Amino acid sequence: MTSPCPNLGRTSLVVLLLAGLLALIFQGPRHGLPVVPRNSADQNILRVAWTQRTPPDPQMRGMTLAQHNLLILSLWEPLVECNPQTGEPEPAAALRWSWSEDRLILTIDLRRDARWSNGNPVTAADFARGWIRLLKGKKEGAEILAPLKNALAYQRGDLSDANSLGVQAVDAHTLRLTLEKPRSTFVMELADPLLSPVDVSSDAVLTNKSYLTIPASLVTNGPFRLVRASADGYTLARNEFYHGRTEVVLDGIQFVGATSLSVAQLMLAAGVVDLVTPTSWGKNRTSPTDRPFSIATEFQPTVHSVNFNVSRAPLADGRVRQALALALDRANPIKHYDAEDMRAAWSWVPEMPGRPGLTLLHEDAELGRRLLAEAGYPGGKGFPILRMAMPLERLPNPFIAVWTERWYQELGVRTYVAYEERKKRAERIKAGDYDILYNQLTATVPDAGDLLGIFSSHSNMNKTDWTDPVVENLLAEANSQTGQEHLALLEQVERRVMTELPSIPLMFDLRRTSLADEVHGWSPDPMMRQNLKRLHLVPGI
Q: Is the peptide bond before 314 cis (omega within 30 degrees of 0)?
């Protein structure tokens, strides 16, 4: 089939033009530099900056997750997608779904008109194949399938029979999923790009990277198909077999290689690309050209925190934990070091679709000093030095330096911050030889329960040794409810956790995306799962 994007491989020319622009930026005037005109053949081609350099494999996690998801969700379509405004799951490759009465069996009815890019039907077996590939390959992110019956045992190698898994292709269009226990967010989780289907030929194509020389050999089921792949990036054209092809306005997408996010932003200013995510530029950054663009900002479902080891004194005392939380100053360090990428956290869960963030914490150093005195440590006297285990890759961390100094100034509490390599830190955590851990937790679904689940005694992410039967019961009940009942139960969990404070939330992540004014239809998504099929370009801008 002839590609509708014959001139998208102009990478060498683009690089030369960009090099010239950069030379002008650093040697001449820094404003009003020329913009590279859009080639006539590219009028309806969206050009995305690409610093990722990862294969187009749906069962892999990319380091720059936003860019990776843009590529994967252009080529592949999972069963559902989550509405970025409400967080609710909506049909994608699935047509409909239904639960058994005990909410342990989910039956999914697939679209009859779903087709691979070679025209063959997409079947339930294709989804089962992709998920088994994810588990069998022990790939990062495979824990997304942990709710399925026997999934973890299969991943560990304790079970070798894939038929024992809770995923069954009943027929070509019916997928039956059996869970270990009820999980209210499971349908949302099916929107993860990791859970895309895999055609019978694709595993070998991805393993051998034959798509580099024969792009059409990579068979995909998304709105676009691969027509070019190289170290410079990827070129995609519309998939004429996609069930929603009449709603796709773009003729294609080009992922253009950039050496860094800063260079990517200059490429947008120069007219070489149309979209950069995440962007390294803030709203006040001056562009070297007059090309108009905007910056979209959104919360990411990521909380930065310090977790307390409550199994030993003095952190076993809730008054001590409260004192440490009250003595902090979140806003000023964030304002000084990273005001455009962070926001202060006043509870455990950031703003999410259909659920505003709560304000459950406050700062009051005087009250903190009184609580510490009540706990037997007036002015910090007799208080042991706290050991904070930090990952070496976080060195240096200005926030931790400021906050631990604040504890000393306000409470007289000293902290020894130990930056350690990952293996040594993991051994220390396993042995319980720490007082405080710095942690960064990201939700995999737009639901508060995903982040609050860390406080369950069953969570392998719970490093605090804090358990609470009330929280356990509320989380279990929330997993059996939906809608407002589900949200109300989770709010009770969050309020109780923030009263006991086994962990102090410090800040939430923000993400910024630069968009040329030609780009229309962008909808911020906290899960970084924007689907480019909804975008269109307004010519002449």
A: yes
